[in-house]
């Protein structure tokens, strides 16, 4: 990753602005879909949603920060978003649901303020389309709901930090990579992530096991380990997508021998320093083997 003096924005965000009635009084937000996440092969989650997320996706930890993330694809593609719609029945991470809102640090006593991504195509700065962010100088219903959601998400971020700190304290996280070969011979790989070492986890002392059981950490680790079986389902999903794409190419144009794209996944490994609830952050990168 290239060093820069500029702060790196969280995943999905382009131009975060703290909301203020005097500046954004006429702004509105239109309904939208999940197209903004279509090229994101991983998304951060918080501890409180790990159990739900583990039923649909592999849950791993970013190699640099131990931030929990769900793996959504093995290339620069979210296999669960098609034509802007998230796959029916699959869990939608809270980080996705809160967009384009966010929290940013402020100098106020409470420390944080609700913000919005001015670069989102759902945000309109004039006109009558969409729901008003402010009404008569006060937060509108949409803004109040977003404030409550982001506040709850921020609290979960703090709890997630305690969870990952416990894992690191016991030195349970180990580097791993995933490799796969598709039926057409293409090789895919995913690295830059960590998982819990099952042997070390099973060898924890009784005092830690009891304490982690009471704190809910034990259950979170079990959900994480069980979720690793979802890599197989992810590969099956990738295989079906590739087969469908190959069929389309065969019907529409002759093969040109160019092969698969060599483009890497978006580098979203560093969250905005002002957004404690915006820690997407993983250096896990799909790559072509």
Task: Pick out the low-confidence regions.
Answer: 1-6, 247-283
Radius of gyration: 21 Å
Largest sheet: 6 strands, antiparallel
Total domains: 1
- Strand fraction equals 15-25%
Can you give the helix content as a percent range? 25-40%
Q: How many distinct helices?
A: 8
Run of helices and strands: EHEEHEEEEHEEEEEEHEEHHHHE
Distance between the termini: 20 Å
Folded structure, characterized:
This protein has 289 residues and is an alpha+beta fold. It has one domain. Helix content is 32%, strand content 21%. The protein is built from eight helices and 16 strands. The strands form five sheets. Strands 3, 4, 5, 14, 15 and 16 form a six-stranded antiparallel β-sheet that branches. A three-stranded antiparallel β-sheet has the order 1-9-8, covered by helices on one side. Strands 10-2-11 form a three-stranded antiparallel β-sheet, with helices on one face. Strand 6 and strand 7 (85-86) form a beta hairpin. The longest helix is centred in the middle third of the chain and has 29 residues, at 141-169. It is globular and about 60 Å long. The chain starts with 15 loop residues before the first strand and ends with a strand.
């Amino acid at each position: 990753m290239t060093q820069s003096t500029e702060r790196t924005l969280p995943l999905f965000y382009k131009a975060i602005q703290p909301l203020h009635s005097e500046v954004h009084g006429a702004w509105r937000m239109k309904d939208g879909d999940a197209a903004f996440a279509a090229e994101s092969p991983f998304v951060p989650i918080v501890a409180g949603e790990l159990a739900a997320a583990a039923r649909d996706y592999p849950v791993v930890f970013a190699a640099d920060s131990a931030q929990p993330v769900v793996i959504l694809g093995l290339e620069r593609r979210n296999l669960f978003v098609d034509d802007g719609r998230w796959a029916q029945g699959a869990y939608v991470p809270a980080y996705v649901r809160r967009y384009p809102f966010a929290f940013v640090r402020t100098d106020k006593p409470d420390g944080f303020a609700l913000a919005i991504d001015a670069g989102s195509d759902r945000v309109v700065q004039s006109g009558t389309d969409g729901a008003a962010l402010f009404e008569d100088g006060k937060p509108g219903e949409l803004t109040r709901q977003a404030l409550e959601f982001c506040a709850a998400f921020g609290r979960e971020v703090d709890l997630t930090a305690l969870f990952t700190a416990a894992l690191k304290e016991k030195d349970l996280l180990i580097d791993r990579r995933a490799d796969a070969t598709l039926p057409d011979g293409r090789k895919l790989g995913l690295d830059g992530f960590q998982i819990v070492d099952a042997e070390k986890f099973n060898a924890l002392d009784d005092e830690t096991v009891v304490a982690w059981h009471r704190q809910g950490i034990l259950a979170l680790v079990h959900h994480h380990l069980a979720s690793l079986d979802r890599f197989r389902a992810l590969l099956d999903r990738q295989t079906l997508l590739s087969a469908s794409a190959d069929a389309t190419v065969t019907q529409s144009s002759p093969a040109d021998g160019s092969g698969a794209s060599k483009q890497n996944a978006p580098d979203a490994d560093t969250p905005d320093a002002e957004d404690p609830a915006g820690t997407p952050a993983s250096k896990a990168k799909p790559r072509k083997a």
